[in-house]
Each structure stands twice: as structure tokens, then as C-alpha cells.
Amino acid sequence: MSETKIALVTGANKGIGYEVAAGLGALGYRVGVGARDETRREDAVGKLRAAGVDAFGVPLDVTGDRSVTEAVELVERQAGRLDVLVNNAGISGESGPGWVQDPTTLDPDLVRNVVETNVIGVIRVTNAMLPLLRRSASPRIVNVSSSVASLTRQADPNTYVGPVMAAYSPSKSFLNAVTVQYARQFAGTDILINAVCPGLVATDFNGFYGTRTPEQGAATAIRLATLPDGGPTGSFFEDDGVIPW
Prior knowledge:
Elements: E1 6-10, H1 15-26, E2 30-35, H2 38-50, E3 54-59, H3 65-79, E4 84-87, H4 108-133, E5 140-144, H5 151-154, H6 168-185, E6 192-196, H7 214-225, E7 236-238, E8 241-242
Parallel strand pairs: 1-2, 1-4, 2-3, 4-5, 5-6, 6-7
Antiparallel strand pairs: 7-8
């Protein structure tokens, strides 16, 4: 089996996901670019290859069982195993003026849609890819979360955490809780799994409102994806270190 490490990044056709793929590729990883949109996916693959990255496209809708199954089959054909899974794909859900999701008027269907992608999609992809990850000597899983998932920060009146986001923020808190459960289940194995906040990055996800570049937002995710054996697991990180739950 090839010594080249294999990574899969979901939602990797643009923004933070693309930069995670680019960063891992620059470190010598062969990178699967997971994305739903064929044109954007192949454009991203072409751009990465032009930059010297060994990239391949992976059609992937994290909300679809068949899509995820086919993605596993493709990665197995392409590489035979998986060393790194970065669960980056996510949505914020519709919001009102000021990027607010008011809990008192929240549509339950909106919450379901956000959780389907941000939480259930991560579970679906992670569990499907586990057999390939278990073939790696040092499997790493990184779940892209957000500092707005921190209940400690959300509950502190002296800490500014942005507008009320009654669907998006709890979905990321849910993702963090799931990450901890995986870490507990993986205890005693070589699998390290962590959550990461990329910070307020200017991408089309937030209408390019942000103070950080996608490259800056990808940096900690790349660090967690390349942790040495014995590194931290079941934790929540940003550039400055651990984020309180």
C-alpha cells in the first residue's frame, strides 16, 4: 500500500474546505475533494492540481445515504484506505435581518435541515468512512465547528458571540457533543477526533463578512489533521488553544 497519506475533505470546493485541502496537499497528502456540485468540484480539483496537489474529486452529498456509500467506494478504489477525514461541509440555515435566527419564531423544519447537514451528515460520513480509516496507522478526524457552539461563551453576558442563531449555533453544540462521544468510543485506539473553530472567516457562507482569510481559517484544522500519535482527542480548538465547551 502506498505510503502517501490520503485525506478526504467534505465541502472542499471553496472557502475553508478548499484551503484545508490545499494545505494538506502541500504537505504531501493525496486529497479527495468532496462536494455536491460537479462543476465547482472539478474546478477545485483542477486548481489544486495546477498548484501541484495530488487531488481527486469525490461526488458527495452528506445528507444522502447513497451518495455517501458511493463516495466510500470511490475512495477505496482510488486509495484503499483513508488517513484523514475533515468534516467541513455545513450550512447556517435561513436567517432574518442582521443574520438573526429568532428562537421565538423559528421554523422547526429549518432546524431539521441544519441538523441534517451539520450533525447527521457528519455522523453519516464518519461511520461510512470508518472501515477505511481503520486501515490507517494514524487515523485523524476533524469536525469543523464554530466558537458559537460554546455554551460557556454563549451564556456569558460579557462575551460577544455575535447574533442570536437559534438553529446554527445549537447545531454546532450538538456536533461538539457528538465529537466527544466518538472520542470516548475511540478511547484506547489510534483514532484521534477533535472539533475546530476556524474563526470569523470571510467566505460566501457569511456574505464575506469576516476578518480572517480562508487560509487562516484552515490552519488549525490542518494542524489537527496532522497530529502526531498520542496527540489530543475529544477537544475543541481555535488558533489560541482550547475553547471551553
